[in-house]
Amino acid sequence: MPTILTMSTTEIWQERASKVKPNGNIFIDGKSIPSASGKTLEDFSPVLNRSIANIAAGDSEDVNKAVASAKRAFDSGIWSQMNPRDKKAIMLRWAELLNQHRDELALLETLDVGKPISDSLAVDTRNSARVIQWYAETIDKTYDEIAPAPRNALAMVTREPLGVIGAIVPWNYPMSITSWKLGPALAMGNSIVIKPAENSSLTAIRMAELAIEAGLPEGVFNVVPGLGAEAGQALAKHMDVAKIAFTGSGPTGRKMLQYAAESNMKQVSLELGGKSPQVVLSDCTNLKLAAETIGWAIYYNAGQTCNAGSRIIVEKSVKEELFSHLKEFAKNFKVGDPLNPETMMGPIVSKVQRDRVNSYLELIGQNNEEVVFGGEKATGDDLYIQPTLISNVSNTSRLAQEEIFGPVLVAIEAKDSDEALKLANQTEYGLAASVWTDNVSKAHNFARALRAGTVWINTFDALDVITPFGGFGASGTGRDKSLHALDAYSALKTTWVDLS
Prior knowledge:
The protein is built from 16 helices and 22 strands. By secondary structure, the protein is α/β, with parallel strands linked by helices.
């Protein structure tokens, strides 16, 4: 059993980071192998400012091998037809192994994407194990149906696994989002091929190794890292893939629909991000709590969160007090070395993403926007962008409408609650939203009227596997998590028996 160092010091984490030698190979049929072409990608760590691994650059040949392995496993019935109690036992063992290796996985996650080690430990690794455990428990508790047919017939409705699932996951929460796809897909008896983001492949590979150690049959879970235009496109177009589950950008999500139409009309589920409003009404009396929660909702993970609360819609009468509390919050929000357990926010994941955030900071002032705090661009090798609040923002501007994916919060003033609701819904996205008010009736009415997949009242980012996650509009289709995700990875079959 690995040594648990969860409460370790910065020095111990730095020492472990200096010695890490992760596996960057493709994982197919239970084996770790190089890419067919022999090509690799440099895995550059924003924490160590250097390469930490060579990641196999998978392409269509590797995807073909992985899908063939997954299909063989599925067709053999070794997993798809396994006794439910045995499948459950394997997934529970897997969840336990994920917990036992929490420190190792957390370090890989932090080194890959730059999130604080405390978050990788307390949130990403812990929740990923919980998701696998939770879906394991559903396996022998999910019942099929008997329809109310006439007495001379028996009509059964059963869930059938789809076959081979292709899952493409992003770099901002690699382990968490991978578990959201794996849990329900495997619980329903499917096989799966994961294509992680090219700059955050390490935890998916390690999760697959631990799955085999837990007893998951070879071929049921495969991992092909590589570029999206090569491995990702090949997976989405593959004729033997029954479904693509994609989390990522809107433009790429649209390509997934196109690839499905060009191939076998496979099912597609999409989670494509958002521009989530945090509405603060004038009757909210605990503005300090609101400010602290709003701050966490945008600056957590350096704003690189699909449902980040990146827009404040605030009534004019409480704006200045709210801003005052936000300034105090930002002053005490520790930005620094992700290997320091006290750090609250680390660097942006890459220079490419940093420069994207910088391009939005350059827009400040073009339409009379004002910086309340932060706003400085990072240059050179610096990947740290400080928490930023921009006021006097027009809700129709790029700053208010486009997903920045960085620690940048924009504030839009509303004259009353009716205008606040209109402004909140004035976006192509609909992933999440929150409303802050002391009026219970107003809170419920507001929540009903907000066009978002998740609405929080007097809180934000309260997430668990027990509730579905997904959005409306440009935020995508389908839902991750909860029992509803089981339906997304299965097909309903009607069997009608004539008893006459």
